[in-house]
Amino acid sequence: MQLDIEKLIAAANQLEKESNALSKQLSAQMGSLPPSIALSKTDPVHSLKSFVIEYITHVPSFIGAVSIASKDAGIDAYVSPFLGVATDFLLSPKGQGAEPLGFLALLEQAYLAHRLIEEVNDQYIVRAGIPLIPMDVTKANVIVHHLLGEVLANNLDDVVEETARQMTSHDIVYSSDKFRQYVETRKGKGWDHVWKQWADMTNSLDIDLNLSKKPPE
Length: 217
Known about the structure:
The chain is mainly alpha-helical. The protein has helices spanning 2-19, 21-29, 44-57, 59-73, 76-90, 103-128, 138-148, 150-166, 177-186; strands at 37-39, 207-209.
């Protein structure tokens, strides 16, 4: 999986060098982005482009993190199907044809993968009271939602929600003794340091989201 995604990223990088399509698209979107998205004043397009590429390339890292945590929790039987679908979202058949995908197309697929991982984490919080993985991709997903546009992003959200609904028939794993022991062991123990490398990706990039900032009247 890692190698396949690396090949997709390498192909997208080469396409971007030849076409500059992502930079052109982001430049065209600058005027329509909500004021809640805070970008570098010196080179906002570069900031946004770096974020988009980072968002895409983080998918395999996030999938790996969730996989390790779910095995530790003894709920990998429940989580693994979600991770398989998240991987398939990025490595879907439309990305395996004669024409390689650029970053714009990969962004849609990465959004599907990230949103599904977010859904797994949210469902875990509901049942355990703690996150499966203490990393917050919500802010990044909101930014990408804006970049994709309401219509497309909402359609992709519908795909994620329907996928999650169809895959929640294995809730029995959450009642297992191993799961309960895992929750009691982890709860309140400050184990976030184990996951420092999976910190909110926007913290390390020149981009932020301020949801309290309202658009002008």
